[in-house]
Specification:
Chain lengths: 290, 301
C-alpha cells in the first residue's frame, strides 16, 4: 500500500518532510515498544536472580548468575503445579462446552431456515456487552445454596456462558463462508440435519475452532473475579487466585515469585507466538460487533 | 406439516445447550440482581429477606460509611484519564503504524502483548515496580538523580499518588488493545483516498487529520465506549495493587461491591452496586454514541 505512494508523482518537499517524519515515527514506535517490553524483560530477569542482585547489586541488568532454582522453588514450595493443573482443567472443559454449544446454536441459526433466527442471533449477541459483574451475586447465592462453590463446575459453567456469545460470533462468520450447496448435496444424498452437521459442517469448522479456543482460553486463564469469589479451597484455586495467595505469603523473596509469574504467563506467550494473527483478529471482531 | 414439526424440534434441540447456559447464567441472574437490590439481604438464605424498596439505593447515596460517591468519582476520573491520555496515545501509534513502516507486524505484536497477560501477573509485576525499597521505578528515577521524589507511604500507599499509580499500569496494558482496533480501521482506509489527497498537496498530518480520522470515527466511538465502561467496571488490577486503599483513594464500584459481599455479607447492597454499574455502563454507551452521531451531522454541514 505504502509503496505506491512513493512514486515520482509526489512533490519534492513532501518527500523531504517524509524523511524527517519517518525518523520521528520510528523513534516513537521504538520508544513505546521499549516501554511495553521493559517490565516484561524485568520480570524475566528478576525471576532468575537472587535477592542480593534484586536488592541493589544488579537491579536492571541480566542476571549474573542464572538461578534456575527459583523456578524449582516456585514449583515446589507453593501449590503452583496444583494451580496450574486447575487452570488447565477449568479452561479445557470450558472450551469444549462453549465450542459444542456454539457450534450447535450457530448451525441452527445459519443453516436451517426458520422464523426468528436473526432475532435469536441478536439475543445471543447481548452476551458480548453484558459484564460479569451483573450476575455475580445471584450466581454466588445459587451456587452456595446448591453447595457448589469450591468446585470446578462453579467456574466452568459461568465461564462457558460468558464465552458463548463470542464463540457464536466467530462461528457465524466461519459458517457463513461454507457454501450452502454442500448442505443441499448432503440432503439429496439422504443426510438428515444431524448427519449434515456432524459429517459436513463440523469437519469444515476446524479453523474456527482454533480461533474460538484461543479466545476462550485467554478469558478463562486470566479471569480473577469469579475465581476469587467462588473458590476458597487451596486445592481448587486457579492460577490468578493462586498467584495472589503465593505473593501474599512470600513477600521477601522475589525470585520465586517472578518465576511463578513467568510460569503463569508462559502458555499465553506460547499461544501468542503461534497464533498472533488470529488472536488479534478475534479481538477486533469482538470489538466491532460489541 | 410433519416435516415442519421435525425441523422445529431439531432447531430447538440444537439451540438447547446454548440457551440453557445463556439464560441460566446471564439473563436470569441479571433479573435476580435487580430483584435482590430491592431487598435487605444479609445471608445466603433468601427466605425471609425483607423488601425495602429503594432503601439500598438511598443508603448507598447518603451513607457516609459506604464511600460510593468516592468510588464513582474515582472510576470516572480513571475513565477521563483513559479517554484523554490513553486513547490519543493509541491513536498516535495506530496512525504511525498505518503509514506502512518496516516491521509493522512486529510492532503490532509487541504492543498487543500486554493485553494478553493476566491482570494478576501485571498487577504483581507493577507492585514490584512500585516497591518502595527495591522497585525498579525508584531505581530508574535514581539514574536521573531524582531518587527521593517518592511520596511518603510509597507510590501505592500515598493517598494522592495511588490513583495515578493504578492508572499507569492500566494505560500500559490497554494502549495496545485500542491501538489494534484503531490500526485495523486505519488499514481499511482506501489507499486511493490517501493518494488523491497527497496529489492535491496535503501533508501527512493533513491526510491523517482530514481523511483517516474521519474515516475511523466508528472505531473511535467503540474505543471511547470501551475505555469508559472498562473504567467503570475495572476490578482486577485495582484489587491486586491496592484493593481500594489507602483510605478509599483507589476505591471503585467493583471493589466496593466485593467488599459488601465478603466483608459485610450485604448481598442486597452488593446487587444494588452491580445494578447501578450496569445501568451507568449502558447510559454512558448511549450518551457516547449520541455525541458521536451529533458530531457527524455537524461534520456534514
Amino acid at each position: 500500500m505504502e509503496k505506491s505512494k512513493e512514486t515520482g508523482l509526489e512533490q519534492y518537499h513532501v518527500q523531504k518532510t517524509n524523511k524527517f517524519l519517518r525518523t520521528l515515527i520510528y523513534i516513537g514506535l521504538i520508544l513505546w515498544a521499549l516501554i511495553d517490553l521493559f517490565p516484561i524483560y524485568w520480570m524475566f530477569t528478576f525471576s532468575l536472580k537472587s535477592n542480593e542482585e534484586v536488592y541493589g547489586m544488579n537491579v536492571m541488568g541480566l542476571p549474573k548468575e542464572w538461578l534456575w532454582s527459583n523456578y524449582q522453588k516456585a514449583m515446589t514450595t507453593g501449590n503452583m503445579p496444583r494451580y496450574f493443573l486447575n487452570s488447565v482443567i477449568v479452561t479445557v472443559v470450558t472450551i469444549v462446552i462453549s465450542l459444542v454449544a456454539a457450534l450447535m446454536a450457530t448451525y441452527a441459526m445459519t443453516r436451517i431456515v426458520w422464523k426468528g433466527r436473526t432475532l435469536m442471533n441478536s439475543f445471543f449477541m447481548l452476551g458480548i456487552t453484558i459484564p460479569i459483574h451483573a450476575s455475580i451475586v445471584p450466581i454466588f447465592i445459587t451456587l452456595s445454596k446448591l453447595h457448589m462453590t469450591n468446585s470446578y463446575w462453579s467456574l466452568i459453567i459461568p465461564y462457558s456462558a460468558f464465552s458463548l456469545a463470542m464463540a457464536i460470533l466467530i462461528c457465524t462468520g466461519f459458517m457463513n463462508d461454507i457454501p450452502k450447496d454442500l448442505d443441499e448435496a448432503a440432503c439429496i444424498d439422504g443426510c438428515g440435519l444431524w448427519k449434515t452437521f456432524m459429517l459436513i459442517i463440523v469437519p469444515l469448522m476446524k479453523p474456527a475452532l482454533a480461533t474460538i479456543s484461543i479466545y476462550t482460553f485467554l478469558q478463562c486463564w486470566n479471569e480473577l473475579m469469579f475465581a476469587n469469589v467462588f473458590i476458597s479451597k487451596e486445592a481448587l484455586k486457579t492460577l490468578p487466585v493462586g498467584i495472589q495467595a503465593l505473593s501474599g505469603r512470600h513477600t521477601t523473596e522475589w525470585g520465586p515469585i517472578g518465576a511463578a509469574l513467568v510460569i503463569a504467563t508462559f502458555p499465553t506467550l506460547l499461544a501468542y507466538v503461534f497464533m498472533s494473527k488470529s488472536i488479534q483478529e478475534s479481538f477486533i471482531a469482538g470489538a466491532v460487533k460489541g | 406439516m410433519k416435516n415442519k414439526t421435525y425441523r422445529n424440534v431439531t432447531v430447538f434441540l440444537f439451540l438447547l445447550p446454548g440457551l440453557i447456559l445463556f439464560i441460566g447464567v446471564l439473563i436470569a441472574p441479571i433479573i435476580m440482581s435487580v430483584v435482590y437490590s430491592l431487598y435487605d439481604l444479609r445471608s445466603i438464605s433468601t427466605q425471609g429477606m425483607e423488601f425495602i424498596g429503594l432503601g439500598n439505593y438511598q443508603e448507598l447515596f447518603t451513607s457516609g460509611s459506604i464511600s460510593f460517591w468516592k468510588a464513582l468519582g474515582n472510576s470516572l476520573l480513571l475513565a477521563a484519564l483513559s479517554v484523554f491520555i490513553q486513547l490519543p496515545l493509541s491513536l498516535g501509534l495506530a496512525l504511525m503504524l498505518g503509514k506502512g513502516v518496516k516491521g509493522e507486524r512486529a510492532f503490532l505484536s509487541v504492543y498487543f502483548l500486554p493485553v494478553l497477560i493476566s491482570t494478576v501477573v501485571i498487577g504483581q509485576l507493577w507492585r514490584k515496580i512500585y516497591n518502595p525499597d527495591y522497585g525498579i521505578l525508584n531505581a530508574v528515577l535514581g539514574l536521573f538523580g531524582a531518587s527521593n521524589v517518592m511520596p511518603t507511604g510509597g507510590w501505592l500507599g500515598n493517598v494522592s499518588s495511588a490513583l495515578w499509580c493504578v492508572f499507569i499500569p492500566t494505560l500500559w496494558q490497554y494502549v495496545g488493545y485500542h491501538m489494534l482496533l484503531m490500526y485495523a480501521g486505519v488499514r481499511s482506509v482506501s489507499p486511493d483516498l490517501r493518494e488523491a489527497a497527497k496529489l492535491d498537496g496535503a501533508t501527512d498530518a493533513q491526510v491523517d487529520r482530514y481523511i483517516v480520522i474521519p474515516c475511523i470515527k466508528p472505531i473511535l466511538r467503540v474505543s471511547v465506549i470501551f475505555a469508559v465502561t472498562g473504567s467503570l467496571k475495572s476490578f482486577d488490577l485495582i484489587y491486586v495493587l491496592t484493593n481500594g486503599g489507602p483510605f478509599h483513594a483507589t476505591e471503585v464500584p467493583s471493589t466496593l461491591m466485593i467488599n459488601m459481599l465478603f466483608e459485610r455479607n450485604r448481598y442486597g447492597m452488593g446487587s444494588t452496586i452491580a445494578v447501578l454499574m450496569i445501568a451507568l455502563c449502558f447510559a454512558f454507551a448511549i450518551i457516547i454514541s449520541a455525541v458521536f452521531k451529533e458530531r457527524d451531522i455537524y461534520g456534514k454541514k
